[in-house]
Amino acid sequence: MIRKHRTLFIACLSLLLLSVKALFPNNCRAAEVLIIGDITLKPVVDVVAGIRETLPSAFTVISPSDETGRLAEIVAREGARTVIALGNDAIKDALQLPANIAVIYDLVVLPPKYDRPNTTGMYMGTPVVTYLNFITKHLPSLKKISVISSPQTMEILGGIGFSQVASHQVTNSFDFINTVKQLNSGDALLLLPDLGLLTATAVEETYLFSFRAKIPILGLSEKHVRQGALFALVFDPVSVGRMLGERAAQSLAGADIGQIPPAPSTHFDLYVNRETARKMGITIPDAMFKMAKAVFP
């Protein structure tokens, strides 16, 4: 009996190792594409899974902690021609590589500033127009959307120039809170990923205002929806990975990826809070519930 269980355990372990090896190719093998990302994090695992679907070339995955101060050496050893950097630490190191190495980045809220050629990427922030198009189709009763953010974030995510949007530009969390409290019109408040403004206190004050004024929050994440935001459109990491794989394949084929502007995701996961809708008298159509990745509570 013990031998039988031991044999079964070894078989299961072998299958598990084969699965991991299929997802993350052998790091000892030279590869044209080097991916820097912490595979203990689920978004990184999902992005890498997406890359595998669209990148026909071999790639190697390494942790940011393993390449610190040695990235150029590792790139040369692997013979890599393209580096996909996932997360701030990885991007910071990748941007220091020689210009003949293509760099593609992701898993940052907004695109970083750089003057490096042969570089492009994607970012996690959801553009304002994506929310507006979604609202127009599914929640047309929300006719006027307030947006409070810094000028830089507003510019990148396109919070200016829409008749549906009342834009308020602020530069610190104190002004953000005061602006929220002074809102006296609008059918919803859209949060943008401005980490310098959205402190714990600012978020708490925004939720208090939302339920007191019965103006729903359109959140940034699943967590926001759990906390009481009406809904959120969150980037889909697997879809993003597919796009990164396509960019890497273009680079290996000789394309100048520096000519491809940074872009947000084009596919999003929907999260909805049913109880918030009920408390605020907002009717959520069945189509939204059906397409949602999760509905709370």
Notes on the structure:
- The strands form 2 sheets. The chain has a 7-stranded mixed β-sheet, sandwiched between helices. A 6-stranded parallel β-sheet has the order 2-1-3-4-5-11.
- Helix 5 (88-94) links the parallel strand 3 (82-86) and strand 4.
- The chain is elongated and about 60 Å long.
- The N and C termini lie far apart (46 Å).
- Helix content is 43%, strand content 19%.
- The protein has 297 residues and is an alpha/beta fold.
Provide a quick synopsis of the model:
With 297 residues, this protein is of the alpha/beta class. The chain has two domains: 153 residues, Rossmann fold; 136 residues, 3-Layer(aba) Sandwich (Rossmann fold). The chain is 43% helix and 19% strand.
